[in-house]
User: What shape does this take?
Amino acid sequence: MTEALRSAARRMGRAGLVRPRHEARLLAARVLGCAPDRLIAGNGRPFDAGQAERFERLVDRRLSGEPMAYILGEREFWSLRFTVEPGVLVPRPDSETLVEAALERVAERGGPLRLLDLGTGSGCLLLSLLNEWPDARGLGVDLSAAALAVAAANARSLGLRERARWRLGAWSSGLQGPFDLIVSNPPYIASSAIASLAPDVRSFEPAGALDGGPDGLDAYRAIAPDLGRILAPAGWAVLEVGAGQADDVAALLGAAGLEAIGTRRDLAGIPRAVVARSAA
Ligand code: GLN
Assistant: This one.
């Protein structure tokens, strides 16, 4: 196996992957059905023929640009394990900024929090928050039935099924509320910028979760005007934004009658979460 691993890592490095050895090890561990850190002990043993073939197939998928998360079928977010498959956006560390912002701002106000996640995808935002707040309940909305199936599976595997509900639909249309906290990571890439995204994102991740229209702000224009209606008094909205969009999104929230409270930066220092509040 050591030789197969080395050769795969070489090819993956030549293809421009940033962490070829690490990724090759993850793929080998998947083939052997063991944890990646167990490989060290067992790596003298060659793959049998079936394993070698399965390993090569996984390596080829990665070389074709398919994201690791789809190949492995999972991605960690907020230290929780989420199932992901093609059709849902892969959870990103940037989005953990929203969880931090929500935890920082939203204090329990007696009674369980009612959460809403618009465009929930894998469910990573809603489920991470439910996991933090044992009394909270939440609804995740998505236009994609495939995404909702993944989100529901994640709720089950994380033991959160009882407190999460899912709804097929367009943003908040048809919802009554009130919600104490609304989170969303909507599509926010300008259509003209989609072509210049990294090939694994562009070719494999769902366009519906990425493409935010001509200036990237279409989703916020759809979401913002209805927030006041479905937010509880003094309820919070925490929205993910792309680089450079925070002021525009804060303005849209302000125009919708919310008070824009501030932003929270991601690990790269980019304002990533816009925080707003409805009137008390
Ligand atoms: N953060 C994602 C990216 O840059 C975009 C996600 C989104 O549009 N909400 O690939």
Q: What stands out?
A: The radius of gyration is 20 Å. The first strand starts at residue 74 and ends at 77. Residues 17 and 63 are 8 Å apart (CA to CA).
